[in-house]
Task: structure prediction
Amino acid sequence: LQYVSQSAHLQGVVLRIAVFFFSSTALVALLPLIARGLHGGGAGTFTVLLAAMGSGAIVATLFLPRLRQKLSRDALILSGAALQSSAMLVIISVPELWVAIVAMTLAGGAWISTANTLSVSAQMGLPDWVRARGMSMYQMAIMGATALGAAFWGQVATLSDVHLSVGLSAVAGLLAIGLVVDDAI
Result:
């Protein structure tokens, strides 16, 4: 805690990952309800969408080294957040399964690209003597933001509807990540 409180770099990384996961977790948290709302939706649809997201993450890892050569960390984070938000908006806007599969594949790629970029930034910015403890703070930010985001966006969905909740989280996440990215990491 002391090191994080004194490291502007790690504070920036933790803030970015928390903002990203708080907003983007709405998609996964509400995915069963989204799947049910698609044409022919059900348990099988949920499984296919989750598999598409995983496939997108796997494929994206193959391209990450090249993307890191072409884009700065913050550009990669902003691009990932923009792609994640766009995919979320597509999924709630188009009721066709094939469109949702493509969007979930892109969301998976965006998700892993952003999380991995921030993870590397945290690890590279931490000295050896505090790396494990610093990464525990990073993991705490992910888990805490995910839990809070799922609860928050679930409550928004309860008070309104699933599509509005996911749409708001996509827009809010993109705006928030734009505010906290400043080429400092």
Observations:
- The CA atoms of residues 16 and 26 lie 17 Å apart.
- The mean pLDDT is 92.
